[in-house]
Each structure stands twice: as C-alpha cells, then as structure tokens.
C-alpha cells in the first residue's frame, strides 16, 4: 500500500514537472515566433492604427515587458485559475474552450477507439491468413491508404460525398441549431472519422499483424497445439495476451499521433473543436489560448503514457520487476528461500 | 500385445526457398503399449520433424508427403484439424527441448495446466484445479498450492520442464513424445528429469518415444533404439543389440563418440564431415562420404534393411553376404551402459 502511494506521488510530481517545462517552452516559442498578436485582437483595424496607438495596445496587453516577466505573471494568474482572455474571441479562454472541447473529445475519442479496434481485428485476421492471397492484398492496399495524406483524402471525400452526391455535410459538427441532435452529429462525424481511421488504421494493423505472426512462431504456441487447443483459442487466449502490453504501449504513445491527425482533419472539415482552435490561435498569435491548448494536449499525452505503464504492469507481471521484488518473495514457498 | 502406434512409409518434406527438403524419407516403425522407443541421431537428421509429423504440428512450410500413421488402428494423416485436436494432448502428447520458452510467460502455470485438463475432460474448474495441483505434486513440485499461481519466470529451467511434463501428462496420454527433454538442462537436473520420466512411464504405463542425440541418456530408459541418419532409419534394435552388437558404421561412430572416463584415450572420437543436404539427397547411402568403411556400391545404390535378428536390422551393404567382413571398432566396456 505504501509502495503504491509512493509510486503514484512520484508520477504526480513527474507530471507537474513536465507540465511546467512545457509551459515555459510554449510560452517562449509563441512569443519569439514572428507575427503580430495585435492582428488577432483588432483584426483588420490594425492597418489603420498609428504607431502610438499600437504601442498603447501592446502595453495594454502587457506584451511590452520582458518575456520572463510576462511568464511569471501568467504563471501566478494561472495558479489562481485565470488563464487570460482570448485575443480573438475577447472572452475568457476557458469559456471558449468549454464550448468546443466536447466536439474534439467525440471525434478524437471515437477515432482512437475505432482505429485501434479495427487495427486489432484486421491485424489478427491478416496474421491468421499469413501469406495467403487475402493477406497479401490487404497488405498492399493498407500501405497505399497510409501513404495518402489525410487532407487530400478529406478533400476527395468532400468532393464525392458532399458536392457530387450531396449525401453528407462537408463542415461543422452539427446542423445549425441542432447541437443536441445525435443523428445530425453522426452525419457530420462520418467523413472526418473515415479519414482519421483510414489514415491510421493500417499503420497499427500492420504492427499487430507482424507481432502476431512472430508470436505464433514461439515455442509456447507449439505446446498449446500439443495440448489440443484450436487455433482460434491459441491466438486469442495466448498470443493476443502476449502482444497486448506492446500494443497498449503503442496505443498510449500514439495519443499525440492521433490527436495531431484529429487537429488536421478538424481544420479541413471546419469542425469546431480544439484542433481548429489550436490552429487559429497559432496563426493569429492568440497567446493565452495557445498556452492552454498546448498544456491540455501535453498533459493528455503524459497521462496516456503513464496509463500505459500502469496497464502493462497489470497484464505482464514481469514489468514490475524493479519494485515488485518483495511481493514475489512473499508468494514463494517457504522452503525455496532457505 | 498389439501395436499402439504404427508408422508406415512416412515421407515428410519442408518447402524451403532452395527447394523441397526431404526431412524424413520412408520411415516405418511401430510402438507397443508401455514401450520406450529411443530415436537417436545427430542434429538435422530429421528426428524432431518425424515426431512433429506424428502430431501434425509441423512448421507452416512442412507437410506429410506420403505414408500412414495409425494410432490403435486409426489413420491420422488424413484426419481433419478438429479431430486431430482431440488426439493431441489426449492420446499423443509431447514435451520439448527448451523449457525456458515453452510455457506462456504471462499466464500462471496452474492455469496452463488447467487448460490442458479442461480441453479434453468435462469437469468443473474447481476439479480441474485440484487435478492440476495433483499433477504438480506428481512431477515433484513442492508447495503446489502456492506454485499454482506463479508465473513461469518464477521457476528454474528444471522446474519448468517438470511443469511442461505435467501439462503433457495432464490427460494421461497413451503416447508421450519427448523431444530431447534434457538437452537444455544442467547435467544434474538431466538425471532428475530422466528419473521422473521413467517413474511416470512405470506409473501410468505410457508409451514413450524419446528423441535424443545422447546415447548415455537412453541407455537405461529405452527398450528399443532406432538410429536415424539423413531422414532415414539406418539401424533398429533392442537397446542391448544396439549397444553390444551395433552393425551400422554410423552407430559405431555414435557409440565411439561417447566420452569414456575409464579409457585412456586423450581425444574424444568423432564422426568426420557433415550430414548431407537433404534438398538434393545423395544417391546411394547418404552416410557413405563420411564412412571409412564405405564400399563402392554405397555411392550409387542404397542399402536395404538387412535383418540380423527378429528385432535387429541395419541398412548397410556391409551386411551383404558378399561384403568384406569388418569387425566392429567398438571395444565395448561394461562401464558404458551401467552407470
């Protein structure tokens, strides 16, 4: 129990440290990048402003101070829960995010779950039919789908399904005024989801396929066969369990990969989510917005990695090696220790 | 007693990039109930492939080309996978060479044994667990109730081999194939595992096919020995006949390469050369190029099995009535067998 608390507190400290570092880096990078933050605040109006007005505006936004000073004032505000206002929306950053984050969670979460589910099924299917025609065909097609860029596929799908066939909407998360309608949401999700899954599916399915093929050549599979187990049971009960730890690690590590994909696809489909927001805030130097979005993304990635480790330890007891030594000895038979 | 297992004219091949490798060529043998048959031969002689073909667990590119396998009169080579699964583990079982990799590393050993029991027998989980614990006890694992929940990495090599044996005998199979079960173990543990196998053989009356390249291992375990070379049987006989009255030059080579502590020989004797490539098996006797007693006929005509006694036969032209009489080079000493 004490071990567990120590383990968890270690992870929390790690998380805080990483977040802190990330905030410094993003803060500096955003401010050092070329561009004019006033554009996002005043829009077109900037062109008509005199130098004195501009200086005044910059001072008002607090951008004239050295970056480290700005950072510390941002940090102390952040500790009080104040993340500033969005220059573009002239609203509190959090309230802007609050309006759209659910859209991204729906799109990103669904694409994440579906991608990995399909990848697992497809990978196992290919491994089962290793080197047969169907496996070879899927491998070829899969490679092509991964190589085609997501934004291109998106445009193609919009052209076919939205413009030519007129079946599906090309942008937005729901039809105007129907934010509660599930049918409308699903209709709007189909295209972005298809793009996201197509884009990532084979990458992970191929990983599963190769791992599975390798696993099926292991000695223990031979013993399972000798026991009289059928192929399906060997694959799902024995091999799958052995590749799960690495798969879960890959899943966790791919959170940024899929999240990045989501952001791009959101932009192409003008899907109102964190991705579109992130893109805009970077483009228009909406510093406060950018900070919060980067921190959220960063924390998500770190937490995903930690979760992967925790799950792995559950599945494969060997991974607890460094701190679990004591537990085993408690389990071993008394005679063997002497 | 009738034959439990009978193999007739078995050919097993493996497809490789270079061509078809004929791993087992025209092998016939039978196994009686309660008998221990040893298959001797060096690496690559086809022993393992032969045994894997009995269970039809050949690698993907391997296949039974021809021949029949009868288990109590039932033909196995043409059985569908489903019926074969009912035979594996229940009728014929197998233990493997490397105990370190043969258990699934992330499933507790108890569950792996239970799985073997539950696959073939209808019983509740609790009964299966009880049975598994009994099995662990049978194979000599202390504190089986505790060990039941442990993972393979918490066991040593010898212990893991014991567990593999427990899995193999879980459903009291009629035939147990032991594919060099002691090769990967320490010498001291080898002896224990051999004793265990013998004990189980006597206790359950299992017939055993014991594959090895180590003559010493089988000396007091097997009743009958077949010597295999380049995918063929070159000599078969009872253990006594092979040890005291070997006729094939290859068997002589194997026997004389046994290290002998009592002899003053400074060097270990060995068989020169390498086994032939079985993708294009040589014409005539495959052993001829390495055989210092080879006759001219050996290079173009394959020797048939010459019968020496009812149980003993060997495939070498030296046994032909016109062949020169060659004395066995083995100066046999009692100490070799009785250890």
Automatic annotation (TrEMBL), chain A:
Alphabetical keyword list: Cell membrane, Membrane, Transmembrane, Transmembrane helix, Transport
Protein name: Peptide ABC transporter permease
Location in or out of the cell: Cell membrane
Organism whose genome encodes this protein: Fervidicella metallireducens AeB
GO cellular component: plasma membrane
Transmembrane segments: 12-30, 100-127, 148-169, 189-208, 247-265, 289-311
Family under the similarity heading: Belongs to the binding-protein-dependent transport system permease family.
Gene3D superfamilies named among the record's database cross-references: MetI-like
Domain (ABC transmembrane type-1) ranges: 101-308
PROSITE patterns assigned: ABC_TM1 (PS50928)
GO terms of biological process kind: transmembrane transport
Topology versus the membrane: Multi-pass membrane protein
TrEMBL record, chain B:
Residue intervals of the ABC transporter domain: 5-255
Cellular localization per UniProt: Cell membrane
Bilayer topology annotation: Peripheral membrane protein
GO biological process, one term: peptide transport
GO CC annotations, alphabetized: plasma membrane
Gene Ontology molecular functions: ATP binding; ATP hydrolysis activity
Key words of the record: ATP-binding, Cell membrane, Membrane, Nucleotide-binding, Transport
PROSITE patterns in the record: ABC_TRANSPORTER_1 (PS00211), ABC_TRANSPORTER_2 (PS50893)
Pfam families, per the entry: ABC_tran, oligo_HPY
Coiled-coil ranges (or none): none
InterPro entries reported in the protein's UniProt record: AAA+_ATPase, ABC_Ni/Peptide_Import, ABC_transporter-like_ATP-bd, ABC_transporter-like_CS, Oligopep_ABC_C, P-loop_NTPase
Major place of residence: membrane
PANTHER family in alphabetical order: DIPEPTIDE TRANSPORT ATP-BINDING PROTEIN DPPD, OLIGOPEPTIDE TRANSPORT ATP-BINDING PROTEIN APPD
NCBIfam families reported for this sequence: oligo_HPY (TIGR01727)
Family: Belongs to the ABC transporter superfamily.
Name of the protein in question: Peptide ABC transporter ATP-binding protein
Species this chain originates from: Fervidicella metallireducens AeB
């Amino acid at each position: 129990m004490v071990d567990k608390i120590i383990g968890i507190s270690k992870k929390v400290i790690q998380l805080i440290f990483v977040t802190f570092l990330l905030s410094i880096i993003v803060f500096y990078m955003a401010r050092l990048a070329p561009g004019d933050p006033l554009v996002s605040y005043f829009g077109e109006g900037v062109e008509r402003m005199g130098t004195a007005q501009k200086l005044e505006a910059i001072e008002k936004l607090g951008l004239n101070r050295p970056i480290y000073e700005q950072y510390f004032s941002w940090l102390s505000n952040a500790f009080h829960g104040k993340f500033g206002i969005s220059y573009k929306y002239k609203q509190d950053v959090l309230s802007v995010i609050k309006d759209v984050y659910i859209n991204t969670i729906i799109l990103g979460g669904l694409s994440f779950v579906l991608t990995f589910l399909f990848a697992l099924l497809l990978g196992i299917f290919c491994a089962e039919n290793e080197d047969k025609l169907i496996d070879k065909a899927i491998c070829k097609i899969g490679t092509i789908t991964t190589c085609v860029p997501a934004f291109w596929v998106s445009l193609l799908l919009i052209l076919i399904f939205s413009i030519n066939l007129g079946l599906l909407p090309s942008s937005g998360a729901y039809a105007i005024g129907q934010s509660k309608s599930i049918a409308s949401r699903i209709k709007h999700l189909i295209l972005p989801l298809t793009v996201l899954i197509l884009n990532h599916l084979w990458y992970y399915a191929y990983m599963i396929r190769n791992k599975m093929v390798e696993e099926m050549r292991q000695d223990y599979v031979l013993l399972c066969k000798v026991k009289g187990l059928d192929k399906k049971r060997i694959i799902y009960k024995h091999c799958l369990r052995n590749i799960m730890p690495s798969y879960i690690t890959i899943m966790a590590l791919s959170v940024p990969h899929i999240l990045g994909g989501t952001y791009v696809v959101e932009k192409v489909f003008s899907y109102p989510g964190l991705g579109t927001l992130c893109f805009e805030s970077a483009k228009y130097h909406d510093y406060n917005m950018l900070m919060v979005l980067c921190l959220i993304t960063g924390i998500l990635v770190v937490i995903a990695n930690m979760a992967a480790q925790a799950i792995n330890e559950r599945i494969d007891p060997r991974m607890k090696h460094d701190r679990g030594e004591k537990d085993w000895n408690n389990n071993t038979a008394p005679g063997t220790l002497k | 007693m009738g034959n439990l297992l009978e193999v007739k004219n078995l050919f097993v091949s493996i497809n490789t990039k270079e061509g078809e490798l004929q791993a087992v060529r025209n092998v016939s043998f039978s196994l009686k109930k309660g008998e221990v048959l040893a298959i001797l031969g060096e690496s690559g002689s086809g022993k393992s492939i032969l045994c894997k073909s009995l269970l039809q667990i050949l690698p993907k590119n391997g296949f039974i080309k021809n021949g029949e396998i009868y288990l109590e009169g039932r033909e196995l080579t043409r059985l569908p996978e489903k019926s074969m699964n009912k035979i594996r583990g229940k009728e014929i079982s197998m233990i493997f060479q490397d105990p370190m990799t043969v258990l699934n590393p992330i499933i507790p050993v108890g569950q792996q044994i239970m799985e073997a029991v539950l696959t073939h027998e209808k019983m509740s989980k609790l009964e299966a667990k009880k049975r598994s614990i009994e099995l662990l006890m049978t194979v000599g694992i202390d504190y089986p109730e505790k060990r039941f929940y442990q993972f393979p990495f918490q066991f040593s090599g010898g212990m893991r081999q014991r567990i593999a044996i427990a899995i193999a005998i879980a459903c009291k199979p009629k035939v147990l194939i032991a594919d060099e079960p002691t090769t990967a173990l320490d010498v001291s543990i080898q002896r224990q595992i051999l004793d265990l196998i013998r004990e189980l053989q006597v206790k359950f009356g299992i017939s055993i096919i014991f594959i090895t390249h180590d003559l010493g291992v089988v000396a007091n375990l097997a009743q009958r020995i077949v010597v295999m070379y380049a995918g063929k049987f070159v000599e078969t006989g009872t253990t006594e006949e092979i040890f005291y009255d070997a006729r094939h030059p290859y068997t002589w080579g194997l026997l004389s390469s046994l290290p002998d502590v009592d002899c003053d020989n400074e060097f270990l004797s060995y068989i020169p050369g390498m086994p032939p490539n079985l993708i294009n098996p040589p014409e005539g006797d495959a052993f001829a190029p390495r055989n210092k007693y080879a006759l001219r006929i050996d290079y173009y005509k394959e020797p048939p099995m010459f019968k020496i006694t009812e149980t003993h036969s060997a495939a070498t032209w030296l046994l032909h009535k016109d062949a020169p009489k060659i004395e066995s080079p083995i100066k046999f000493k009692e100490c070799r067998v009785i250890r």
